[in-house]
Amino acid sequence: MYAIIQTSGRQVKVTPGGFVRLDGTAGEPGAELALGQVLLVETDGGEVVAGAPFVANAKVVAVVDGEARGPKIRVFKKKRRKGMRRTKGHRATYTRVRIKEILL
Q: What is the pTM of this model?
């Protein structure tokens, strides 16, 4: 059984017992999340239910494991012959969640 959900503008394939990395902070460790934007569900019997755009009454229950930060991204801008150089950077914060179950 698996589902495809939409979160933060991205589509992610999730399976029960699996781990997913979501953008931003989603909650304290141990808190339960209900992800309701389910695009597609495939059951154990092989039946595929697709939504238009979301599957009605379907949700994914997940538990927050913790937060982590991604790699440092460096942004360097330069204009030739002008002496303009600028360096910026950032590290994105991610939330690691464990998928408990997929409800249809």
A: 0.81
- Cα R_g (the chain), whole angstroms: 19
**For residues 58-72, average pLDDT:** 96
Are 82 and 25 in contact, with CB atoms under 8 Å apart? no
Q: Are 47 and 11 in contact (CB under 8 A)?
A: no
Structural domain of 54: 2-103
CA dihedral 23, 49, 103, 44 (to 10 degrees): -110
User: Which residues lie closer than 8 Å to 19 by C-beta, 6 or more apart?
Assistant: 65, 96, 97, 98, 99
Residue 1: count of CB within 10 angstroms of its CB:
13
Whether the CB-CB separation of 83 and 93 falls below 8 Å is answered with no
**How many independent structural domains does the chain possess?**
1
Residue 26 has a pLDDT of 86
Q: Cβ distance 64 to 25 under 8 Å? A: no
